[in-house]
Write a structure and sequence with these properties.
The chain is of the alpha/beta class. It has one domain (8-194): Alpha/Beta hydrolase fold, catalytic domain (Rossmann fold, 3-Layer(aba) Sandwich). It has helices at 20-31, 50-60, 62-73, 88-99, 139-152, 178-194; strands at residues 8-12, 35-37, 82-86, 105-109, 125-132, 155-162. It has a six-stranded parallel β-sheet with strand order 2-1-3-4-5-6, sandwiched between helices. α4 (88-99) links the parallel β3 (82-86) and β4 (105-109). α3 (62-73) packs across α4. The two termini are 15 Å apart.
C-alpha cells in the first residue's frame, strides 16, 4: 500500500506495450512516494512502430484488453485507485475509473475514450495531457470529450503541449519531446500530490 498522503496508481501502457518509458514513468511516481502497479496487457510483447502496435492491439481486441485491465486493477481497487494510462492505456484507464465509485483520480497521457451517456462520477479529479495538435485527439473531439466528462461529474484539467508528437513522453520514440515530457511530469506529480 502507498504511504499516508500518497496514492496507489495503476498505469496502463500504450499500444507499444510495456516499454522502458512506461517503467520510467512508474519510477517517477514511485520516487514521489506513490505505489505504482504496471500490468503487462500484451503478455510481454512490444512494438517497434505504430503499425506493429496496432496489430498487437487488434490481435487481442478491445474487449479482451479491457477484461485484462479490470483483472489487473481488481486486487487494488478496494483502497481507491488512481487510474492512469498512456494513449491506448489512457482509454482503458478512463473506462475503469468511470465505472469505479472508489476511484481517487484519473490521469490520462496522450489518450481518451468515448464516454457512456449514463456515466456519472462524484467530482472525480481528472488530468489529461495531450500533444497540440494530435491526430489521435483532434480539437473537436477533445472539446466534446471535455464537456461530456464535466456532464458526468468529473473535475477535468486539460494540458495541451504545443509542437509535441503524440507519445511525446516515450523517450524511445520519434514523438519524444524532452521539454514537454518534463513539464508533463512536473504537473502530474503535483496532481498526484493533491489527491
Amino acid at each position: 500500500m502507498a504511504s499516508p498522503g500518497a496514492s496507489t496508481v495503476i498505469l496502463f501502457h500504450s499500444m507499444y506495450g510495456l516499454r522502458p518509458a512506461v517503467h520510467a514513468a512508474a519510477d517517477r511516481m514511485r520516487g514521489a512516494g506513490h505505489e505504482v502497479i504496471v500490468p503487462d496487457l500484451f503478455d510481454g510483447r512490444t512494438a517497434e512502430n505504430a503499425e506493429d502496435g496496432l496489430a498487437i492491439r487488434d490481435e487481442f481486441g478491445n474487449d479482451e484488453l479491457l477484461r485484462r485491465a479490470v483483472t489487473a486493477a481488481a486486487p487494488y481497487s478496494e483502497s481507491g485507485l488512481v487510474y492512469a494510462g498512456l494513449s491506448l492505456g489512457g482509454a482503458l484507464a478512463q473506462n475503469l475509473a468511470l465505472a469505479d465509485e472508489r476511484a481517487r483520480g484519473l490521469l490520462l497521457l496522450h489518450g481518451t475514450s468515448d464516454i457512456a451517456d449514463d456515466a456519472a462520477v462524484d467530482d472525480l479529479p481528472v488530468q489529461l495531457h495531450v500533444a497540440d495538435p494530435d491526430p489521435f485527439e483532434p480539437h473537436d473531439w477533445l472539446n466534446a470529450w471535455y464537456l461530456r466528462m464535466q456532464r458526468a461529474g468529473a473535475d477535468v484539467e486539460v494540458f495541451r503541449h504545443a509542437g509535441a508528437g503524440h507519445l511525446y513522453t516515450d523517450f524511445d520514440l520519434p514523438d519524444h519531446d524532452a521539454a514537454a515530457a518534463e513539464e508533463t511530469w512536473r504537473v502530474v506529480l503535483g496532481f498526484l500530490a493533491s489527491l
